[in-house]
Specification:
Elements lengths: L1 E9 L3 H19 L4 E4 L7 E8 L7 H14 L7 E9 L7
Antiparallel strand pairs: 1-3, 1-4, 2-3
Helix pairs in contact: 1-2
Length: 99
Amino acid sequence: MDLYIYYRVAAAHTQQLHGKLKAVQAVLQGRFGIAGGLKRRPGEQDGLQTWMEVYERIAPGQEDEFGRALERALKDACIAALIEGERHVERFEDVATCA
């Protein structure tokens, strides 16, 4: 399972958000062995940037525990205060190829 989480952030908050997210991702990597990625859509619209966190290859049976740990870490880091609106979570799984 892979998680793609996107949201908008004011340009004024990007540096602080980046530091906090990298710390959250370091904790999650230490606990679950999942290296989080961070992406940003090029440019801004109305002073806002679109950011995306990526967490790939979450093991079967680990999705719920990882999700709870992620939400707790984000809450502890006060991430919600730095973003505009909601975090949108998309879950994707690999498609088995035909042999």
